[in-house]
Amino acid sequence: MKQKPTTKWNPEFDTGNCNKWLTYLKGQNLIRIEDNVGYLTPPFDIVISNGKYNDIEKTYAPNEEKGGLMFASISKNEGRILLKIESIEEITNDVETAFPGSSKKGSYFPHADNYLKTLSKNFSETDPSQIKLPIHFHTHPTRDKFEDIKYFTQLWHPLNMSSADIRVSKSRHIQLNNFSLFYLNAIITGDYNEHRIIFYGNNVTPENYTGEKAKQMFTTFKEITGEIENENLRRFTRIALASLGVAGAIYQPLLIPRFVDEFVYGLDKKEFWGKLKKNGTTTIHIPFRSLEQENK
Questions:
Q1: What is the C-alpha end-to-end distance of the chain, expressed in Å?
Q2: 218 pLDDT exceeds 60?
């Protein structure tokens, strides 16, 4: 990014409706307050129905980044918070205007006016239980170039999170007087056949994201190697893997932390991302991860 945007887009809502909503969330123990900053209280599940998958599929494009806002209802099921995606609103990518020299092919920045109007409509509800939690999302287009190693490209797709994405996730919030409620953020990646979604921000992602992956590289190497052997890869595929750089490229997306008190990695573990199901419901599990642990 070559310059700061000229248009302010972090919304400031001073309406009674939004204040009632925050009071409702705090009363239901759905958010946690630290130094006048609100975060969702993990653990929680994010549910995406097959109907919403169709909306996501329409938003995804293979040659440019798109994005917008998802709106989720918040409830509790047997003591666990449930976020159910109720609607998806695409918002025009304005990055080429906001940041001259940038391209829609590599960056997403929402059109400020449309972004604020979409949020304002959500907070027009007078019943606080009917106001939805906004989740900012954008897409990272990827193409399946290596059909002979489809197994690995599928795992490669979920993660294309840049340092800029993580940095922006820390500044995107709803501001109410002296109180801020941070958003959840989502990235959607895929190819021509399938799509995956990854959630981060709102106290979900550690600050030193790349460092946490690298720290676990050697402890997971044997496990991943075993998984490769189980796949009985053909000789051609092994050569392709070697040419791509196994540890630096193919393995990197596998080193995704579960964001619990002790980072646990592995192909057989549930992560905070998931393949979006065309027929059925996709559930993303966000486990408990304490603020105290993060600040140690």
A1: 32
A2: no
Q: How far apart are CA 206 and CA 42, in angstroms?
A: 14
User: 3-class SS at 171?
Assistant: coil
The CA angle 161-262-272, to the nearest 5 degrees, is 40
Check residues 193 and 129 and name the one with the higher pLDDT.
129
Which 3 state secondary structure label does DSSP give 226? helix
81-93 b/e with 16+ CB inside 10 Å = b? Answer: bbbbbeebbbbbb
Instruction: Give the predicted TM-score (pTM) of the model.
Output: 0.67
CA atoms 198, 183, 50, 139: torsion sign = negative
Residue type, 24: Y
Helix (H) or strand (E) holding 156: helix 150-156
Residue 32 three-state SS: strand
Strand 80-90 versus strand 44-48 pairing type: parallel
User: Tokens 């997403």, residue?
Assistant: 108
